[in-house]
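To whoever is on call:

I kicked off a structure prediction for a single chain this morning and the downstream step that reads the tokens threw a length-mismatch warning. I double-checked the sequence; it's 954 residues and nothing unusual in it as far as I can see. Pasting both halves so you can look.
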Amino acid sequence: MKALLTSAGLTLCAAMLCAERATDLLNTGWRFQRDPDAALDASAAAFDDSAWQTVRVPHDWAISGPFSPDSDGSTGKLPWRGVGWYRTVFTPAADDAGRRVYLDFDGVMASPEVFINGRRAGGWDYGYLGFRVDATPFVAFGRANTVAVRADTRQHHSRWYPGAGIYRKVTLTRCDPVHVAHEATFVTTPEASAAQAVVRVESAVTNATAQAVQAAVTVTLLAPGGRRAAEQTFALDVPAGAAMPLAHTFTLARPRLWDLGQPNLYQARIRVKAGAAADTETTRFGIRAFAFPPDDGFHLNGRRVQLYGVNLHADLGPLGMAFNRSAMRRQLEILRDMGFNALRTSHNCPAPEVLDLCDEMGIFVWDECFDKWDGTSGRSKAQNLEAYVTRNLRQFVRRDRNHPSVFVWSIGNEIPPAKPGDAADPGMTGARCSLFRAAIRELDTTRPVGIGCCHANALGMKIFDDLDLTGWNYGGQYAAVKRVYPDKPVLYSESASALSSYGFYAVPPAHSKTAYAVEAREVCSYDHNAAPWSDIPDLEFARMARDRYCGGEFVWTGFDYLGEPTPYMHYFEQMRKYPQREMARSSYFGIVDLCGITKDRFYLYRSLWNTRDTTIHILPHWNWTGREGQHVPVYVYTSGDEAELFLNGKSLGRRTKGGPVKRPANLAAGGAATASSAEKTAAHDNPAAYALDGDADTRWCAASDAVPQWWQVDLGAPTSFRYLAAAFESGGKGYGYDIQVSDDGTAWRMLYSKSRGEEQPGAIDRPATCRYVRVTFNALDTGRWASIREFQLTSEPPANPYYDVCDTYRLRWLDVPYAPGELKAVAYAAGKKIGERVMRTAGPAVAVRLTPEQRVLPDDGESVVFVQVDVTDAGGTRDPLAATRIRFALTGPGELVAVGNGNPRGHDAFTDTASHPLYFGKAVAVLRRQAGASGRITLTASADGLTPATVTFK
């Protein structure tokens, strides 16, 4: 009989003669304790941990909070800094003696040390990358063994919430001493087409015995569905205490290719037999061919594919950093419905299961190892940068290189160029980029090595010469790269950075991208806002349509995330006058909010990216008590090319995408523009005339960040105007300037003055008659240069030309007189009706409503189900403004894991599940069934004065 190996509820099969390797999760039976003084030593096997908290792994010790309202929100206002200890016990059978035992940690934040039976067995220094501990020398077979893990986040630096603790899975592997070497297998497809594929399997066999052995090795290829496609058996002599490489090449006729719509997965199975020892390892792979033609973007399996990508940070909203496969699948499924097909793992190594899911779902991955190479990489100043980065890159590539979804290796993000001659500066240099590329190419030559960058000044420094590909962040900067490296592939690694609060609307919509609703501490969902350095989605759509040499974009971001709450954080000077308590703790960037509720922007992307399904979406909500008869703009996002809007049955007219833009004549157009200086380099050419060319995607820019700088226009003759308007490269608050006028270009009189930090007006009402108009920049935010996208002089109030592009992708009715009732949009494509959508005014709330996203709650103890929570009127219409506090109760063999509502400024703990407020009418509850448990689980949600709701899972 097989003996048993147990670990606090875990049962493992012990070794037998010719036993195969066994890998088991160590997810239960852990005990945890914070160490606030960092003075505890809990490594000894005899240490008494009976009073510690019992937890499941993956575990994020900080996500339970509490939130610290008065702290900085850049890393989430959660208590992630500190030291924590984890302990568990496992008992290997005596029959396992002589086998190898390994512990694999997929991720511990941060600087983990692992102790087995009181002895230090291993550790790692980068919290985003897994590591293996050879437990064999420390294990006592046939009796209990204690594993203790110390995590220390005090020296870790982050620009967002990084979590804390053993936040990814831990596995225990037992195998015979002659076995397939760890992470040695690499499957490549040197030739891949619908007609034929060449598959090369490389690996190695480890012999951990004291004698040389001859192993029988069988390499089998299994087609999708499990059919044997090819097989080869051969002998391999393996010296004692060494690893011997192996390689074999197969040719497959008519293979099933891995593709975005059909992610066919093969398996390479390597079986090793050496006397009584036996081992089998199976590796999934895909057969596909991709390329980056310099002038035609990205090609997959012989055709051009536009990459519709997003960036995602690693947290899972209310679940924190504790990885959960079902929650991650939910994120990807929501995004896939939007039409997305590519993921950038910003800015760190993802959980291995993320890549598994992308392999299975047909999603390409820009696989990124680091943010910066400084403290955010986990590197201490005492560690050599080149050695540290190289070591982690190699481990990263060995771990991920068999995933067909991975198509780019990225060595970092937005790393500024190093100061010349400063060896301690952790910035980019050509030598470092070349070194790190070489380290990756030693392990994988099938994918390009790139980096995400936003520092245009690096283009003249030859930093990127040896990289295969570059990614550029924001402002269409990839166009400058194309001029410097015309034959090098380029991707838009971060685009948009648009901002919005789910469900909040300000009327009128913002007149500039940085005109946030500061008094409300929200960002308007009319989708007019973006970060100072970035742009609205529509402008990025236009760039991608125009610049086909760019393979696609990765939007910042797919989901909101904890930390980095632009614009409501003290990072921005203009926000420092407000107390931290009024600043946010999670982001506004997401197309989807922190809890997985789709924002309006989701449907704007879906209307363009999802070419399979019809999209019709109306915004805003239609509850505007007190604005009866006043104008409320209405937007429709649709995959059609036109729509007709009805209010209470009355047509408000049709709108067509790409129709003529109506705006007052720009009296400055055609004038002669000059400037104190103009940027002109190999990468950038931004003359004064660009401020009058009618194109919001071009600009005049000064030659440096020095001030003062001026730009002026000669109108050719005295001209009368009333309004002035300027659209700047970045947010208007960051510029201080004077506007002067002159009749002769010599004697100037002041017309308008704005201080740096002051809100930029939409239009400046200053009537004047003159021939010359000059804008003099006298103060700039750090990192800004004097720059103007477009300048206007008009006799009527002008609209910001920055938003002209919206009419190509949105349908807008700007003057709808509010009346409660029903809004209806009927959409058309090529003159044919494709569908309609209705928005109704909600009456007084009478009931709570629960809507589960799925009805099956698996008993694996890991999978979670999300239930949406709202309140409705008597007709079932959701109240879009409700802030009702909902009480929750759960019965049956389950757990209410977390509750959230997506409010970036909310301080209710996610794990305080007794009650939670709605945020603009929404919240989400997260449930899990106990492992192995059956029976009904019932969630009840109630609120004062409302009919409660229940949902039952069988």
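Update from on-call: the warning came from a stale cache, not from the record. Cleared it. Sanity check on the structure: The chain has a mean pLDDT of 95.
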